[in-house]
From TrEMBL:
Domain Nose resistant-to-fluoxetine protein N-terminal: 42-221
Keywords: Membrane, Transmembrane, Transmembrane helix
Designated name of the protein: O-acyltransferase like protein-like
Source species taxonomy: Eukaryota, Metazoa, Ecdysozoa, Arthropoda, Hexapoda
Top-rank taxon: Eukaryota
């Protein structure tokens, strides 16, 4: 495998081994370890515990009340109880020259261990029976529940890799060790602040006597998040931006509303941070000849599909659940296809990216003019993507870690640490090469691949804009064939599974799906080239009446429906535990994405030329334009916001389809509102300033700086 890996990967991409150095989660870099150490005092700990037990049973009851009970719904997969986080940290009382305060700690109890009970003369001899029987007997599981728990641990591990999170408490599975054998029950305890966790457990619960093996997790105290450079930078930058917004908006309202001056006479640069003007630009739609109106609807629906998928993914990786086994059962069912197949929507955006690149460029410049201004071609693209992405990276590394708190805050803290250490690969759009498993903003792998495809696009675009149709067609088809052939050979050599997660045992021996397939530009490029081909077709047909017989239109729609449905359906069998068809996996990985892209491209063509009927009416409705214009900021911010909200939970959530839909609606509304704020604060002002300083026509900058059709960020998912 190593020889194959080197042979096929080196021409495609290089994963820098040093990129993983110092990126593993270390909570001491996010929480004040000195604070924890300074408060420890064994003598004070014993004195406070003695006082509480003898003299203040009521206060002692508050400590006991803030601890965990035994995790509820254990047979449904719940191994976590979060106790009373706020109640514990809210304990504070001064008595007898002592300041008694609460400290919240999480501990783990391995499910399988030699347990010496006080009333037993000998340990339980687990070694005399099989691990499987121990697991089932200890947990009182039926065979079905035991298999489901095994599947849960396997799928959680895969999802952790899929989203770039590697929490220490992920229950790993190997061939030699049963996954449940390494599982632990995690619960909370509330102890006096001077006590170390180990001393408190020994003094209060007498664990040295019982011999119960308990592993220390982490402890939390009030105000234990030290301020770092990123925090000061974020506060300074956003304070300046807020001040500029106030000044610019005041200037704008004074001249437009109070003095009633002609907007054309107002200094455009002084209006760049105006909330009033930028909001007008956002909601004002001016018809543009040749605009592809249906793209706003496609972009909006695709964005909603992305949020739905991420809502369910974050259930398993950042929010404790009362019934994770029921969620796993749902994910294996046929009715979850709209969730498990949501990853295919990324290829919709790759398609739009390639399509718009050709459609908006061809006929406007020549090949030599393109090469002459190649630096501006790249610079404009980079600068249009950079501001919103940089704002999110800075917030994730700083204020998102401070804005709230909770017993499950470790997931948010880890994201902050990853952004503090690997922010620069993200801003250079190389995070899929440098640190794919430890990305800052793990979902931005898409931006990296999209930007990398944009970097190589002039090799094709030069021949397409040359004006010779034959040369253009040869170049476009050659690029698509090269992508398909290269990715097919690579997939068959590597032998990946056919999805981001699967319950099949055979998938355990396969190469890492996320690092070597999901974020690999080679295997993700074919939808981009399919989009380029259809972008050229739409360019050739622009302004022309295309007549297609009704029978052919019906046949094409039927074919598109069958193919797209097949692509979605294939996510159902491959997730099943008995799936073991590697050849099918390789074919799915090689051709699923270009087939989906082909179906989306046909839908766009049919909408533009009047062969989509009510579908075109729905997708072209003006109500989607705002979402289309906000889609880039929605994509960048929605996922870290989900992790943040999940980190504030105080009790494990209960999964149900109804609650999942409610949570999706909440996530969607939050993403829209935050995207609007980010657009007003960062995107719209930077758009005006960039166009001004790059010498773009001021009139163009004034009319539609946020146009859903002309904005190069529109295709981001």
């Amino acid at each position: 495998m190593e020889f194959k890996l080197v042979f096929i990967i080196i021409p495609v991409f290089i994963i820098t081994a040093n990129g993983y150095r110092d990126l593993i989660y270390n909570r001491s870099e996010l929480f004040d370890d000195n604070l924890y150490e300074e408060v420890l005092n064994r003598r004070q700990c014993a004195a406070q515990v003695k006082y509480l037990r003898i003299n203040d049973q009521r206060l002692w009851g508050r400590f006991l009340d803030a601890r965990s009970r035994f995790p509820r719904s254990l047979t449904r997969g719940n191994v976590v109880d979060l106790g009373g986080y706020d109640e514990c940290l809210g304990i504070e009382k001064n008595v007898r020259n002592m300041s008694i305060e609460g400290k919240f700690c999480m501990v783990r109890i391995p499910l399988i261990q030699f347990i010496h009970l006080v009333n037993l003369s000998a340990p339980l001899e687990f070694s005399q029976i099989s691990q499987t029987e121990v697991n089932r007997n200890l947990l009182n599981f039926e065979n079905t529940n035991y298999n489901d728990l095994t599947s849960l641990i396997r799928i959680q591990t895969q999802l952790q890799k899929f989203v770039g999170m590697t929490q220490e408490d992920v229950m790993q599975r190997t061939e030699e060790v049963n996954p449940v054998f390494d599982a632990s029950i995690r619960f909370a305890v509330c102890i006096p602040k001077p006590c170390s966790l180990r001393n408190a457990l020994n003094i209060i619960f007498g664990l040295q006597i019982t011999g119960l093996q308990v592993e220390e997790g982490y402890c939390r105290l009030p105000n234990d998040k030290p301020w770092v450079a990123a925090d000061y930078i974020a506060v300074s930058i956003f304070s300046v931006i807020g001040f500029l917004m106030v000044l610019s908006t005041t200037y704008d309202i004074r001249h437009r509303i109070l003095l009633k001056r002609d907007p054309k006479t107002i200094n455009k640069l002084l209006l760049s941070f105006s909330v009033y003007t930028n909001t007008l630009r956002l909601v004002t739609y001016k018809p543009s000849p040749g605009a592809l109106e249906c793209l706003d609807g496609i972009r909006a629906f695709a964005m909603m599909w992305v949020i739905v998928g991420h809502t369910h993914v974050t259930y398993l990786i950042s929010a404790p659940l009362q019934n994770p086994l029921q969620m796993i059962n749902f994910m294996q069912s046929f009715w979850s296809l709209w969730i498990t197949s949501s990853t295919i929507t990324v290829d919709t955006f790759f398609t739009l990216s390639g399509l718009l690149l050709i459609y908006t460029t061809t006929g406007k410049i020549t090949g030599w003019k393109l090469m002459k201004n190649l630096h501006l071609f790249y610079l404009n693209r980079y600068l249009r993507l950079f501001p919103v992405l940089a704002a999110c990276v800075l917030l994730q590394a700083s204020l998102f870690h401070r804005v709230s708190d909770g017993p499950a805050w470790e997931a948010v803290a880890q994201q902050a640490l990853q952004c503090r250490k690997s922010w620069w690969p993200t801003l250079l759009f190389i995070q899929n090469f440098y640190s794919p498993l430890y990305m800052c903003l793990s979902h931005t792998w898409y931006l990296a691949i999209d930007f990398q495809l944009f970097l190589i696009s002039p090799l094709i675009l030069f021949w397409v804009v040359s004006g010779k149709k034959r040369t253009a067609w040869i170049t476009l088809i050659t690029a698509l064939l090269a992508s398909l052939i290269g990715s097919t050979i690579y997939n068959f050599i590597m032998g990946f599974k056919a999805g981001p997660f699967t319950l099949s045992l055979s998938a355990e021996d396969q190469p890492d799906y996320f690092s070597y397939y999901y974020v690999n530009p080679l295997v993700r490029s074919s939808p981009f080239f399919v989009g380029m081909i259809f972008g050229y077709i739409l360019h050739l047909c622009r302004g022309k009446e295309i007549i297609i017989p009704k029978a052919q239109v019906a046949l094409l729609w039927l074919l598109a429906l069958i193919l797209s449905s097949g692509v979605i359906y294939m996510h159902y069998p491959v997730i099943q535990i008995d799936w073991d068809k590697q050849t099918v996996n390789d074919l799915v990985n090689s051709f699923m994405r270009p087939i989906w892209s082909l179906c989306v491209s046909w839908m766009i063509f049919a909408c533009v030329h009047g062969y989509a009927g009510p579908i075109n009416w729905l997708l072209s409705h003006p109500m989607w334009k705002i979402l289309g214009r906000l889609s880039y900021a929605m994509y960048i911010f929605h996922y870290p916001l989900m992790i943040l909200v999940n980190g504030t939970v105080r009790t494990p959530l209960y999964f149900s389809n109804e609650f999942a839909i409610q949570k999706f609606l909440a996530d969607f509304v939050t993403a829209v509102l935050v995207a609007y704020i980010v657009t007003m604060f960062v995107d719209a002002p930077c758009s005006v300033l960039i166009k001004h300083f790059l010498g773009v026509d001021k009139k163009q900058a004034q009319v539609k700086p946020l146009s859903g059709t002309d904005n190069p960020k529109e295709e981001k998912n």
